[in-house]
Amino acid sequence: MNIDRSTVEVAPPEVILSARNIEKRFGAVQALKEVNFDIYRGQVTTLFGENGAGKSTLMKILSGVIAQTAGEIVLEGESVSFSSPSDAEALGITIIHQELSLAPNLNVRDNIFMGRELTKGRGSVDYKEEARQAELLMEELDEPIHPLTLVEDLRVGQQQIVEIARALSKNSRILIMDEPTSALSATEVETLFKVVQDLKNKGVSIVYISHHLEEALQITDHAVVLRDGVMTAYAPRSDIDLQWIVRHMVGESFDLGSPPTGYEQGSTALSIQNLYISDDKVAGRYVVEDLSLDVRAGEIVCIYGLMGAGRTELLECVAGRTRQSKGDILLNSTDVSHYNIAQRIERGLVLVPEDRQRDGLVPTLSVGRNLSLASIHAFTRKGLTSSSLEAEMINSAIDKVHIKTDGGEASIGSLSGGNQQKVVIGKMLATHPDVIILDEPSRGIDVGAKAEVFKLLSQGARRGLAVVFTTSEVSECLSIPHRVLVMSKGRISAEFKPGVTKDEIMAASGESVAA
Amino acid sequence: MSHHNNNALQVEKGSIDIVKILLEGRAFFALIVIIIVFSILSPVYFSTGNFLTMSSHVAVFGLLGIGMLFVILTGGIDLSVGSTLALCGVFAGMLLEGVEIEAFNLAFFPSVWVVVVLTCLLGGLVGAINGVLVAYFKVPAFVATLGMLYVARGAALLLTDGLTFNSLSGDPTLGNTGFEWLGFNKLFGIPVGVLILFCAAVICMLALSRTPFGRWIYSTGGNARAAELSGVPVNRVKLSVYIISGVCAALAGIVLASQLTSAGPTAGTTYELTAIAAVVIGGASLMGGRGTVRNTLLGAFVIGFLADGLVIIGVSAYWQMVFTGSVIVFAVMLNNVQYSAKHKSSQQAEKTTESKREGSRASAT
Amino acid sequence: MSHHNNNALQVEKGSIDIVKILLEGRAFFALIVIIIVFSILSPVYFSTGNFLTMSSHVAVFGLLGIGMLFVILTGGIDLSVGSTLALCGVFAGMLLEGVEIEAFNLAFFPSVWVVVVLTCLLGGLVGAINGVLVAYFKVPAFVATLGMLYVARGAALLLTDGLTFNSLSGDPTLGNTGFEWLGFNKLFGIPVGVLILFCAAVICMLALSRTPFGRWIYSTGGNARAAELSGVPVNRVKLSVYIISGVCAALAGIVLASQLTSAGPTAGTTYELTAIAAVVIGGASLMGGRGTVRNTLLGAFVIGFLADGLVIIGVSAYWQMVFTGSVIVFAVMLNNVQYSAKHKSSQQAEKTTESKREGSRASAT
Amino acid sequence: QDKGLISIIVNDMSNPYWQTEGTIAERTAEELGYDANVSSHVGDTNTESNQVDTAITNGAKAIILDPANADGSIGAVRRAIEAGIPVFIINAEINQQGLAKAQLVSNNAQGAALGAQQWAMQLDGEGSYIELKGPPSDNNAATRSNGYETVLSQYPDLSLAASDIANWDRTEGRNKMQSMLRSHPDIRGVISGNDEMALGAIVALKQEGRLDDVIVGGFDGSPDAVDAVRSGELAYTVLQPVAVFAEHAVKIADHYINTGETGLDSEKQLYDCFLITQDNVDSYTSPFVLE
Ligand SMILES: Nc1ncnc2c1ncn2[C@@H]1O[C@H](COP(=O)(O)OP(=O)(O)OP(=O)(O)O)[C@@H](O)[C@H]1O
Ligand SMILES: Nc1ncnc2c1ncn2[C@@H]1O[C@H](COP(=O)(O)OP(=O)(O)OP(=O)(O)O)[C@@H](O)[C@H]1O
Ligand SMILES: [Mg+2]
Ligand SMILES: [Mg+2]
Asked: Who is most buried in A260, C314, D128, D252, counting CB within 10 A?
């Protein structure tokens, strides 16, 4: 174990929970190797690491979701072992899972109290009391959602808030948050951090995991870095900065790149003209209103916006999943408005969806077949698919987008988040598109993967590919795009050149300028 | 689909606005239409007497349907209810005719209530086997219960050697009389079978809408993994819904046997399909998590009232099939229409179905 | 799991290592066990002649099973195959006995091949109705095909007025002879029915493993939303699998009719369950996306060879049911065991599961 | 048509036998000026009792019932009687006297004996044979099987090689026959509980090329079977005079409705069955009618 020198100096404050030499293997995969990890009373310990580094696995072990293969967990001096999450909760350890774990068919109240019903006499559930408490929690997180709204009617962000509310409702002394903010807007994150502060003051110990490094730095007191299941570094807040984290996470330090230059941008590849998309919930309301946008071949455009700005709607409409109510979409100056998804792909317009699990990957197919799914006809001869041609294209795709996998036959589930995202992008690039639009391509993937994805995009641009991507992270707006558009309430509220500052962008998005 | 929980809410809020509740019932429109049409076509259809008779026919399917609902709410399915009904029926018949224990060569004649209890226990046992296979051996529900469909039927036939028990009336001297009372007599002018159905319905309604167990069922069906992580004993929940389904099948078997004053091993063939149809017409989702007892009952009534209506107006047996089939489909399409009327919920409905597929596929791997 | 793909790949690579392929077949062990057991219990079981007879029985279920596989691969289900089989059977019978057109009072006697084609068209049509309901009207597959189960059966009965067509042999003078040849004769010592099954199997195997269409089916069943965004015409795929299932049912109907030299409207009752059992014993997932033709065939053979074996050794009809049921369950449990035995694949399974669950929650939005 | 409704409930309209029963009863009823309402319970006692209930609801003047089960149908009959509707049982009896006004059934025992004798004679009373039975839940299956046994037991050289239940069904008859032929290739005869199963067996035998040296006997006298007899594939079949008692039943019902009594000496009326062989096959003029 190459623990960083800095550990020796600092004398860390009181440890409440500590993991000793934790090992975890999933069959062949060794997810954790001899990990030692401490949680400090009343403080925030942040866990950094690439996709697949083992963060979630470690947390699942600490919260009794899965059992370690070896090693022990020490809570306030004595060694404990959990056979189920409930055991851990009994000892005051709660976890907010990376993947939302809510029942979409139930309402907010039922989800918050699922499995720990408040009963009043003769075993009947006390709905009134539950509803009251749920309401309070929602106020605390100032997200005024009525406790009786169905979870499936909430957007991802709001669902994540419900998830958080549920964790808070258990008012436990150790709270583990595994990427709680992946779908939250900057303002929502602010609120969350306030709550975290209160909890700290109440003496609650917190473990925090996030791929938004700057964000994490705001609240953390201790930083721990995991890499390939090994703990590579520990340091208190005082001794660390972004570079430190990145260095330990991925070895070398690097930035997200800059706008590719040194080539001529081509003619307009994608042209959106006065697009209106009606809101499928509120009749007469538009989620996208009178929006026009031209993208030239070889140009990279970034769309920044808050949750609910309507970016997903815009992109899904351009890709053909939904129909606009007014306006035209021109691809290389042919109107594609009436084409279906397949036809648009054929003509070179592809979408990398926001949610790779739901819209990107086919879990039952191998990595290779996911990669080739969108371009089957390219390796079909006389109506039959040629496995040799397919293998060829799969392998080229795998190394074009640098997917870490043991061959095309590996199952999708064996890939880490970042690599899964690359599969989705690779699938779409394999169709040799003229225009690629990506919705939140960096959601839930680590800086390393993020950098690679952006490198891919700029390479594409050099070859004359028109790129449009959305993001909720301001820092990404300052990386490769030639143009930054800010979207708010379904309209483009501002347009910037690369030189722009973060504050300008956030201001334009109608977001409270913060840290 | 969001609709459903609203219903649930109504109940929770203790709203007693019958009309509203009914109007929210998916199958309600279909039922109204059926009643109107047949009342026009036949003068005898629209009469209390006939409604009571038809209801007593519905009782059997209603009981099966309620049990089925519990299973379907968790995303499972129970194809064995028809066979279980038969097995329990003949078992009850056997007990009522008295059991000899050679060993001590003494015969013993359990009283009706003992018989009823024992029969329900048998039903529960059959259900438990399904449940264990599904919850602990991870056998897909469809397969486990398909197997049980054959096994239970075979058992029923073996038990009776294919014959039918018909002396269920018992014998005053042995104190095991009163069985036929169940199926034949009326309380406050209502056939006992119907009363049993409604008691079962009310109990299940409460269980689903008021108890933690109810919420566990909905959450298991909604997202089993999430439920498990939140401390819901998912496996025990699954096990218990199959037991409930088995017990309901047993009750149905008892009601049927008492109505026919005889118990045969071939009773209830293909009733599982009818029961499922009732649940689905009631707007429940086969992916689990959505559905209410009330709507399932409405579904059962739709089927029952249709079947009897067709016989009353003397439609040929063949056309009866055609109509039944079409009505099942149309009743469900009607729901979709209702949905897309509410554009939002329809869209969500679709979404979740998708998700549920994936979710449950996971559990099937 | 990944295992499956391997199979598929084997085929694609044109690997002809029969043993390997068979060993990879989920149902293979069950089949071996059955053959061994019965060969021990009865001297006559293990003989070419008997295997041919049994295979000709399997032909019908095999054809239904293959059609069912396509539907199940997309995550659907087709309960109407049994009725479709009957409908198509009697339709073929009707055509062979000749159709009068009153208008021009001329009778016309289509030749056998015309009959076969027309019948398959009818089957396709029935399937198309299912498909449209499922793909475009978003009626749950279970419901749509359950409705069709009744409607098609009713239609078959109406078509024949409940009677059975016996004179299928045709008449040389009318040039419509040769139908019985299908079910009766042998080519190279193999019953024609079996040959038809294997042709169908080979074609479908190719379609699934070597054509874009096949890939579309697997991806639709795996994750319809993702497939759609990758340009897969999901709705058309869904529609076509039901059509295929309908055509297979028609073929099965023809084979059965020709084997019995008669076509009755009640043929094929409950065959849908047997077909589904075959598919599931073959290791396919009812949630879609997993399953192969070869394993489905093995599943069909398991059921067929078991049923006939039980008769040969003279087990009572009741025990036959009990055994059939148990074997279905055990065969599927066997698969689970195999899975967890294969550490790698099972573990990946788990992970895929993992990701799928994430998927499910994501799409819950 | 103002004499009211007669509800006719038969077993399964998709079987020529019961179809004849239903249609003839219906025709007779209408000739006598009644409305007729035919429904079929397909052997399910629950469906049957539902149909009886609807008959009650319809205020039928009489019910002509082909019971689904000798024991299982009693409840339904009783309910009709309690509702004051006379029930006339046809084809199969119910195991309780004094409920139905009349039970007109073909004499299955006599028919079985008739068939068995003919069959044994054609076999010269020797050889091993296979029996195909109907579902035990239907007590005609038992009656016939017993009938066969009583006769055949008098032929010491006739040995039962195997017997199985083929549920009155042709497909099952064939499949099971084929399998049993495997285990008992040396059989010389097949005796079947009804015609459908016999026809299935014939197909199996044809396929194995054994039809010439195996003698198959049926029961019911269905048109298909009679054709088979004519073509010499089926040795004989036993005709149940279903056409006759279906008609009588309605006539008696009519008589009862008018006069309040059946005019029968006893409740149970047995109708003897007739043997159909190649000799008299031509006098089989219309379905189930032997001139
Ligand atoms: N259920 C499982 N079965 C097999 N392997 C698993 C399982 N869960 C995780 N893994 C593997 O363990 C390693 C660590 O996974 P983990 O989810 O802890 O990474 P992570 O740090 O949380 O990544 P991310 O930042 O994307 O959430 C990865 O290689 C992953 O593939
Ligand atoms: N899953 C969902 N369920 C219900 N409403 C949603 C959902 N997703 C988005 N919306 C609504 O649609 C509009 C656009 O939201 P959406 O989140 O798609 O915008 P966005 O700019 O793509 O934000 P992000 O991409 O960051 O989620 C908002 O009104 C939002 O409330
Ligand atoms: Mg993680
Ligand atoms: Mg979005």
From this structure: D252
